[in-house]
Structure prediction request, 296 residues.
Amino acid sequence: MQNQECLAIFEDYLKNEKNASSNTLSSYMRDIRQLAEYLETHSGTDIVSATEEDLEEYIQHLRDSGKSVATVSRSIASIKNLYSYLGIHQIVKHSPATKLTTEKNVPKLPQILTSQEVNLLLEQPKCIDAKGYRDKAMLELLYATGMRVTELIDLNVGDVNLTAAVVRCHGRNKERIVPIYPAAVKALDDYIHLVRPQMLADPSDPTLFVNIGGERMSRQGFWKIIKHYQKKANIEKDITPHTLRHSFAAHLLENGADIHAIQEMLGHADVSSTQIYSQLVKKQLKDTYKRTHPRA
Prediction:
């Protein structure tokens, strides 16, 4: 079932069975249309085929875009209602929205890894086979740049300039150039020259990161990679691709980076989206003080 058909039958259900008010109907349908557009644009999928990971990434996208807690909570309610309806009518077998949870009207600080945990995670891929070289390069690049997972897998080999040690990232609003540190340059150099040519299904394909079938890596595929190395590293925190993005920003801020420079590297349209990392660093400083000061 196509997205437009899903939207039409859900709108009919809200109007004629739920007798939703015009405001409720407008809000719900706006939320679902935005979800459908995001899935088509970022995942190449539709409402019926969406996974838990797709929906979790969409909700994270709303938060990263600076949407209020109230707006995000309403979107979650709309999505849950949609999939409840689709489940009752057996259009989907299982609702991918069951694990989505609303928040209290207090901004939730993102979870980050410590520098030690990042190092432990990055040490897990072993460069003994093609997969190890590729995974090492992907993890290093993600932490080096703080880019979104969709931006990472959308990269082409021409977007990387190893000599200049920069990568051209295709963000939602505009392109941005982000520097990459030497270890990430080395991992990319090894992957691009030693491994990628053998992994490509089509030698003319410009895709940077490919799966074992030689085609562009999917978001779901990279999600599994993250979870695999989290388990290998015995890190108890629930790591997602966004965890490295958050850690990148917080660690830069901790070490004195200007918040506007971080905003530029993350591709935030508004600095208010970046300022949450200031709150996070302040909270960590307070926690450290309370934990270590003899009279705290």
In short: The beta strands are 160-161, 166-170, 175-179. The longest strand covers residues 166-170.
